[in-house]
Amino acid sequence: MSTQEKIDKFVINSYSRAPITFVRGEGAKLWDEAGKEYQDFLAGIAVCALGHSHPMVVKAISEQAARLTHVSNLFYTEPQAAVAELLVNNSFAEKVFFCNSGAEANEGAIKLSRLWGKEKLNGAYTIITMQRSFHGRTMATLSATGQERIQKGFAPLVPNFVHVPYGDIDALTAAMDQQVCAIMLEPVLGEGGVLLPPAGYMRKVRELCDKSGALMILDEIQTGLGRTGQLFAHQHDGVEPDIMTLAKALANGLPAGALCAGERVADLFKPGMHASTFGAGPVVMAAAQAVLETMLAPGFMLDVQTKGRQLLHGLQDLTIKHPDRLKQARGLGLMAALEFYENADRAQAAMWEKGFIINRTQETMLRFLPPLVITAEQIDSMLKALDQVLEMGE
Ligand code: PLP
Questions:
Q1: How far is the CA of 249 from the centre of ligand 1 (A)?
Q2: Reduced to 3 states, what is the DSSP secondary structure of residue 209?
Q3: SS3 sequence, 129-170?
Q4: Residue 198 per-residue DSSP state
Q5: Distance 149 CA to ligand 1 centre (A)
Q6: Ligand 1: distance of its center to the CA of 317 in Å?
Q7: Ligand 1, atom 1, residue with closest C-alpha
Q8: What tens-digit pLDDT sequence spans the chain (394 residues)?
Q9: Residue with the nearest Cα to atom 5 of ligand 1?
Q10: Is the pTM for the entire model greater than 0.90?
Q11: Which of 11, 108, 136, 189 has its CA 20 to 30 A from that of 329?
């Protein structure tokens, strides 16, 4: 049986997979089992920000694995201390809780908001989230998610999430009442199709929270850690949340999540209230330390911004050249989408065929989330290939 046959037979069929089996990666390149080379414009869905087999990450993981792999959070470990310090020193956060995934980080944020509501807001427990948002697949996070297709089949959902249109400050203002303990949103909707809010929106959300006492939670699981050309996307707006959740790129492919808590909420969890067996394991934290130290090096974010502009301008040029097929190009840093008038499946398949890994999201959009170490030449070659695919009518 082939690898694909085995997975189809033995793994629960909850994913729609492309018929490609990857066996190796380096930088922004991948190779399948037949030796075909691909340029990676997905990075494992915004995870391998430093690309595949980055030497610093490989070194950190191998050395730490040979030294100490796991002892639990009943004890102290050095890599956890290093990563917590790096996150706190480079963000608004006062303290961090570590876990293993985005959904788990958001679960922590939801629990913390409930505590905040109980202790400071007379028991308020409504969390406002956004239509078209994505916050994860656990019961609470899929209830927070503003997409019916993610929730279908799993009712009754966790109460009390109220969904409002993304970017609409009037709708958000109207939804604020005494029961609201938090507003939770992505700085850019990722799974929703790389949608950016109008200028000034984040600041107004902050103001609403300040006025009511509700917490501002930013889900930076996809936008965080350099993806948009700043370490965190909210830094573009000069606005600080009370809680930020991270995962995906944090350990460049090893499972890591973090809940970063600002001053007001940093000490709400008390011993015994929240935990995660694997959270902040030494190997994962060694990888995260390598990721953060690499991203914090001078010039790293500037380079992401430059390549992000190249990608977006290239995509915008394609919308001008193919106005009958393409509706819009959007993006911030190395997070971009190209919206088609029709289903983008054929274009995605044609790009795979040409050796470019690009992902379709929301039926009509191609989404670009390359490793941040992608080169200008690789971006150029992808844009040329995409132009050819569009010319061919794919
Ligand atoms: N939040 C956002 C914005 C995401 O993009 C994702 C995953 O795509 C998640 C949460 C869930 O993360 P995970 O799959 O690690 O649970």
A1: 11
A2: helix
A3: EECCCCCCCCHHHHHHCCCHHHHCCCCCCCCCEEEECCCCHH
A4: P
A5: 16
A6: 30
A7: 135
A8: 999 999 999 999 999 999 999 999 999 999 999 999 999 999 999 999 999 999 999 999 999 999 999 999 999 999 999 999 999 999 999 999 999 999 999 999 999 999 999 999 999 999 999 999 999 999 999 999 999 999 999 999 999 999 999 999 999 999 999 999 999 999 999 999 999 999 999 999 999 999 999 999 999 999 999 999 999 999 999 999 999 999 999 999 999 999 999 999 999 999 999 999 999 999 999 999 999 999 999 999 999 999 999 999 999 999 999 999 999 999 999 999 999 999 999 999 999 999 999 999 889 999 999 999 999 999 999 999 999 999 998 7
A9: 222
A10: yes
A11: 136
**From the alpha carbon of 248, which atom of ligand 1 is closest?**
15
In angstroms, the CA 35 to CA 378 distance is 19
Residue 219 in contact with ligand 1 by CB distance below 6 A: yes
The closest-lying atom of ligand 1 relative to the alpha carbon of residue 138 is 16
Answer yes or no: are the C-beta atoms of 103 and 300 closer than 8 Å. no
Alpha carbons 361 and 190: distance in angstroms, whole number: 9
Helices (H) and strands (E) in the chain, counts: 13, 15
Would you call 31 exposed, middle or buried from its count of C-beta atoms within 10 A (0-12, 13-18, 19+)?
middle
The answer, yes or no, to whether any atom of ligand 1 lies below 6 A from the CB of 193, is: no
Residue among 69, 20, 31 at smallest CA distance from 284: 69
CA–centroid distance, 142 to ligand 1, in Å, is 10
Beta strands in 301-364 (DSSP E): 326-332, 335-340, 356-357, 359-361
Who's near 231: CB < 8 A, 6+ residues apart?
90, 91, 224, 225, 295, 296, 301
> Helix, strand, coil: what percent of the chain each, to 5?
40, 20, 40
Q: How far is the CA of 135 from the centre of ligand 1 (A)?
A: 5
Vertex 366 angle, CA 304 and 357, to 5°: 70
Using the mean position of ligand 1's atoms as its centre, give its distance from the Cα of residue 320 in Å.
Answer: 32
